[in-house]
Design goal:
By secondary structure, the chain is mostly helical. The protein has 12 helices and 2 strands. α2 packs across α9 and α9 crosses α10.
Amino acid sequence: MSVFVQTVVAGTLMGGIYALIGIGMTLIMGVMKIINLAHGQLMMVAMYITYVLYEYLHVDPYLALVVTMPALFVLGALIQRYLLNPLIKVEAILPENQVLMTVGIGMVLTEIARMIFHSDYKSVRPAYTSISLYAGPIAFNLPMCIAFGIAVLLTIGLFIFLLKTDTGKSVRATAQNKEAALLLGVNADRIMVFTYGLGAALVAAAGTLLLPIYYLFPDLGGAFTLKAFVITILGGLGSTVGAIVGGVVLGVSESLGATYVSMGLKDAVGMVIFLLVLIFLPGGLKRLTKI
């Protein structure tokens, strides 16, 4: 029983980080109505920034958040403003041209990272990486606890921003009905630029929090883009609360799969649950949980 509880605890802690990844994609998908297939690559960029700050300037990985989040917000806003927004106004044979552009952006970011850092694996291991806290027989890895706590605080801050500020309400209005928001005076183009930047900042935070407990290489982004998409579908398209639920479900599923099936097949367990949700709950878990 203690092994099961330990597995669920570890999965829940990882799920908190996954939730940030999913929320970032959900916001972009809700406002822009596209799947951001460069999402994981943006996270990879933030992880490399964290690595450089730790390796050469000896900045604690978690303190690097004050650099990676603003940096990726700016990068995301520039991508949206100069690469994606122009495609909205151009009639093309393929209406999914914005999605194709995000694929290209992801490939460019990956190859730039490979050119600068090569393809070898890198990691960040502060002195507290191996420290664990205990509650009876259950161990809580300190870096994962810190990452989970910061992820919760960022998520709460995001919800306060979306619910209480004028800009946040404009984001929600644009996601719900862009035409109505335009009639009410919302600058939809500016909101889309801001939202892409915000989504990039959130996934940057997830990458920075993940680095002390994970590893880094240029092709990492593709796997996490897939995870973000799975989380978004699990939680229900456009639902930020659903993205939190989806992130935790994926984290726990992978943890259980690694413990009871095989470490090498933990990702496959998450994919199986993803397929089952698509078959039996095509609206995502939000239909089941009423969120």
